Structures are given as C-alpha cells and as structure tokens.
Amino acid sequence: MSHIESPTKTIEKFIPSWRYTKPDRLREEIISTFNETHRKPDEYKFRYKNGELLDFQTSTRIEINTSSYLGQKDAELLNTLTSWVSENPSGTALWISPSYDSVYPCNKITMYQIEHLGNLLELIGTKANNIPLPSHELIHHFVDLIHSGASAKSIADEMQEKGLVGKFAVSCSGSSSVSSLESQSLTLNLTGLEDKYGSLSFTCPKCGRSNIRPFGQLISNCQHCGGDVRC
Predict the structure, then answer these.
(1) For a disulfide at 40, which of 65, 122, 129, 190, Cβ 3.0-4.6 Å?
(2) Is 42 exposed, middle or buried (0-12, 13-18, 19+ CB in 10 A)?
C-alpha cells in the first residue's frame, strides 16, 4: 500500500548526505527544503555562456564528480540541458528523477524554462506565497548543526519545530530500488527525442573510467587516458 511520507521523515533521510555538502550549497538545500514543504516556488538558475552552463550566483563552471553512478547521471542531465539550451531560443524541459536509496529518498519532477535571449535556464515557479524566508541566522544554525554530526532525527525535528520544515510532503508515493533505477533511467533530448547513439555516459574499455559525450555526438578518445573508444 502506497503512502505519502511525512516531510520531517524525508528530511531526516536527506541529512546524512548533507553532512558532506559545502556550506554554501547546504544553505541552498535548506532553503529548497523550506520552499518545497511550504509550497513556495523553488527557483534554481543557471547562466548559459560560451557553450556552458554556469552557476548563477558565482558564474563559475559547474563541476560534477562522475566517479559514482549518480554523478554520471547528473552529468548526463547537465550535458543534455546544455545541448538543449544551445539549440533552442525558448522552450520548457521536464526532468523526472526516481528516488535512490540513502541519497535521494523521494521522486522528483523538475521543470526548466529558457528565458529571453537564451542566456538563462530557470526553474519554473509561479505559485504565489507570502510566507517569508527563514533568517540567515537560522539557516546558518542548521548548517553548523548538520556538519556537527548531531542526530539526523533530532535535527529534522528541530527544523520542523522552528518552521523550516512545513506541513507539505517532499516525496511522492512509491520508490525505486537501486537495481531498478538503471532500467528506469532514460537519456532524453529535452525536446522529446532520445539520443540516437544511446546513453551519454560510457566506460572506457582501457582504463575503466566514465566518459560523458555531447548530445548527438560520438567521441574517438577517452577523456581520461586518451584510449580509443570507437566501436
């Protein structure tokens, strides 16, 4: 029987992975938690410049560690979004991401929209909400508390008590096991077409490291060892 998990319980599951998140990024995660559980628009923006998506606040290149399966999937998404925004002056993209045990405890559906001039990718959020954001001091308190190693349950409960976690669920009912995630994952051109060459991520037969290729293009050499990766 499916059920919708309480937001406090979901946040408790997130906290162990947050302990290794840098302070600036963790602040954004906490604000996102507040927005989602209070049903406020949760905006996340990229800048698009010289063929790359950049962090909106710092204008620096987005670096993704592809040593893990999740990192490879995140890199596939970023690569596909980059190709999509480079080829379209406007449009909307939908990203459906299933849950992943102990890291992402819930399913996610994220929408992106290209703004004017094609130089900005912005998460759509249109629902008005007058609830003010939590103070910088309160957010900083929880950043320190999470990094301190305190009990995930006690932190989540305190976040709920102090209003950082609202009454609305973060998760969707149902979940996906690690073994079934691969079969459910699909690399899409976000105009709705599957890449004709298949997955954007592949393993070099020589060094065994993961490579990420551009959407709609093949590469001849491994990005790490330079080995021949042509079939």
Answers:
(1) 129
(2) middle
Q: What is the pLDDT of residues 57-77, one digit of tens each?
A: 777 887 777 777 777 878 888
Q: State the amino acid at position 49 in one-letter form.
A: K
The distance between the two most distant Cα atoms of the chain, rounded to a whole number of Å, is: 57
Cα–Cα nearest to 198, from 82, 84, 80: 80
What are the residues facing 194 on neighbouring strands? 188
Radius of gyration for the alpha carbons in the chain, expressed in angstroms and rounded: 19
**Beta-carbon count within 10 A of 47 CB:** 17
What's the number of CA atoms in the CB half-sphere (13 Å) around residue 7? 21
b/e per residue 113-149 (b: at least 16 CB within 10 A):
ebeeeeebbeeeeeeeeeeeebeeebbebbbebbeee
pTM above threshold 0.85: no
Contact between residue 78 and residue 62 where contact means Cβ atoms under 8 Å apart: yes
